[in-house]
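Sample 3 of the quickstart, ligand iron/sulfur cluster:
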Amino acid sequence: MRTRLVKDTIVVETADTIYLYAQATRKVVRVHNLCPEIQQELSDRGFFNTVPRSMHYRRPRKWTSLMLLMGKACPLSCLYCYAHGGRDSAMMKPEVADRAIATYLSTRPKRPKVTFFAGGEPALNVPAIKHVVAKYEDAVRWHMTTSGVLPLDWLEWLVEHQVGITVSIDGPPHIQDTLRPLRGGGKSSPIVERTIRTLVNKSGSVGVRATITKETLGELNGILTYFQSLGVRTVHIEGLYSLGRALESHLAALTPLTAEERTKLLLDGLDWAQANDRQVKMGSISYLLRPKVAGYCGAMQGQAMVVNHLGQLTACSEVVDESADEWSIFHIGQVNADGKLWVNRDKLHKLQQRVVTNMPTCRQCFARYLCRGGCPHKALAATGDVCQPQEQHCEFVRAVIPVLIQRMAEQAWLHYQISKKEVL
Ligand code: SF4
Ligand code: SF4
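Result:
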């Protein structure tokens, strides 16, 4: 298989068929040759476009969302925790959360959204969450990503107050209790199952996020079937990366996935989703239908304001505070005690320049508009440079995109916003 980029169009050539994906118009097609007549017809039908202005880089001017890192305490002791959750018990005070939201709202975001996120387990910070949700309830869309280990009455309060919830869970009990045990060693699976069943009963559906290791990859079908049995409709799967505790651990269960295994994970996940009418997502290819010259990460781009428990702004939700080695790179500002926002504009501006057109390895890559250079933090951890992508990430993206284009053209069922009419 040979893949190249012609203007905006990715051309994938196999032994007997050529598949094309026009990124500006998001059309796919399969043809048997690219003779001048067919090329002309394809040009007339929305292929081989000059990359439009709308796909070019524009520096974000506004914060669109706010993420609050509620504290570092955690009831779990996940073997691979990226953020070293639970290493200390620092918590965001209600007044810090309040100031961060007031400051964010003062920038007049279009559809304000606040996410309670990790550093530890956000749901442990009951006082701060209750305070801000009660105060700003209707002005904001609320979301929380949680381990699912929280008391039932607290969970019900969150649902009643329209806090959308995503639960992190890695699979059925024998996997969950090994990879994500309670701090002190108990089983987390009964509590997390109760949380998911409650959310399904009360809100009709729930999304979960699962980390897959080399050892659990072979059980993917069982993992997805288990989620289905709990009533889950959308699963976000990610292969394990070497970060945080995963980097430090020498346990076999924490071996990161190779590019080949990551490809298998995605394709097997999509096959399962198709057969079972469910949704399976993976972060690294989330821009397949939104091709652009842009940054990979909203936090790095100055679109998502990420505030830690001390009121400091970080450009990466996984680099929480000064205890992280990378803090000096990602610390970009502060919500001060008087509510004034201070941002190190030079530093943020430099991070915002991390787009594929400024990254030497990416400039000529056929996947550049879909990949956007991948996660800067993972690049930094692997290569020591946010602008030098991780080799395994590139290997995965370059292997999987041609296969996905082929599948989009062959299988209109994927509904990738591409109608049957556009498949010749
Ligand atoms: S740098 Fe990577 S890990 Fe950090 S917030 Fe962005 S995408 Fe997430
Ligand atoms: S990170 Fe790798 S795969 Fe992605 S655009 Fe850059 S070179 Fe291509």
